Amino acid sequence: MNKREFLKALSSMTAVAALGACSSSVSIAEQGKVSALKKRRLYIDGLSFIPKEHLDVKASELNAYIADISDIEAITMADSSTNYKRTYKACMASIKRHLKSMQENPDVYFLASKGSDIALANELDKCAVFLQIQGADCVEEDLNQLDEFYDLGLRALQLTHHYNNVYAGGALSKGNIGLSSRGQALIERLEQKRMLIDLSHSSVASAEQTLALAKGPVVQTHGAARAIVNNARCTPDHVIKAIADSGGVFGVFMMSWWLTDSNVPRAEDYIKHLAHIKNIAGAQAVAIANDYPLRGHEKALASGNNNDLAIEGYKSWWQSNGDKGILGFDKDVNHIVIPELNHIKRMRSIEHLLERAKFTSDEIDLVMGENWQRVLVDILG
Fold first, then answer.
1. Helix (H/G/I), strand (E/B), else coil: 44
2. CATH tag for 3-23+44-297+347-380 (out of 3.20.20.140, 3.40.50.720, 2.60.120.260, 3.20.20.10)
3. Rg (CA), the chain
4. Residue 196's closest CA among 248, 239, 234?
5. Judging by beta carbons within 10 Å of its beta carbon (0-12, 13-18, 19+), is residue 217 exposed, middle or buried?
6. Residue 277 in 3-state DSSP?
7. Distances from the Cα of 183 to the Cα of 139, 143, 177, 264, angstroms
8. Each residue of 200-236: pLDDT tens digit?
C-alpha cells in the first residue's frame, strides 16, 4: 500500500468518525434543520472570497469553501514592475475585518477550524469557510506571526503569489527558484500546526521541494494543467501526480486564459482539465476551484460576459510578463472567463457537465466536494 492508498483508506475512516461525532453534538432541534443539502452532492470550492452580499453564499449552494481573506499593498519591484504584496499589516487588518463580517451573519457562515466542521455546518444549514492567504509575505518577521494568524482562524497558506519571495520561488519569476531555508522552516511549521500547504502560484522547483519535504498531504487550491496550456502558471503533470501521491488534491480554477488556447473559451475546456488530472493522477486528486468571487468575475458579469470588455486592464500585465520571457505569455489572449460558468450556480453546471462527460457517479461525488472534504479532514482534523 503506497502513501496515497494509505491516506485514502485512513481518510475514509476519519470522515465517518467525524460525521458521527458531529451528529451526536448537534441538538434534536438543530438536526431538524437538515435541508435539501443532505439530498444532493457535497459542493466544495477550493478558492473564492467573502462576498459583500452575504446571500451570495446561500445562492451558490456551497457546503464549504476556502476563502482568500488577504489584502495587498502595491510594491514596486527591482525591474520597475508592480507586484501586490500581502503584508502582515494589510492581512492582519483584513482577517479581522472578514471575521467581523462573518460574525455579523451567523446564519450564513460557519468559521471552520477542522475538516470535520463541514459536516457540522451542513447539519446547521450553514457554509463552512476555511480562511486562506495567497502568499506567505504576510509572515514578515518570524514564524510567530503565522501563529497569530492561526489563532484568528487561518488554516491555509500559499507559499507565494506569482513572484519570488523570501520563502519560495514564484511561477512567474524567471530562474525556477526553489525553497529557501526560511521556506523549509515554514513548511515544517505549517505541518506542525496542521495547516494546508498550498502550492498555487509556486515555481516548479518550489513545488517539487515542498512535496519532497512534507510528511503529509499537500494541495494546490487553484490552477490548471500545463499539458493542455503551456504556460508558467499552469502545473506540469509530474507535480500534479506528486500532489496526488502525497494524499492531496488539485483544484482547477475558472481563469479561461489558462484553460484553453482557443479564442472562444467553452465549458468543455474546463472539463478537459478535470479529465486530464483524473487520467494522470486518479479521481481522488481532482477538485473544483474558482479564483473569482462566488457570483463570478464582476466586470465580465457587468458586460454580459463580454470577454472583449472584461479583459481590459489585464493585457498590459500579460504583455509585461511576455516581455520578460515568461513561458506562455508570448501569446495574445482575448478572454478571461468561460461565459457558461461565470455565474453563481456554476457548481450545478459543472456537475451536469461531468455527467455529460461520462464521469461515473462516484467520480462526480469526489470531484464536486468529497475530495476536498477528505483532505481537509486529513490535514485539519
1. strand
2. 3.20.20.140
3. 20
4. 248
5. buried
6. helix
7. 11, 11, 12, 40
8. 999 999 999 999 999 999 999 999 999 999 999 999 9
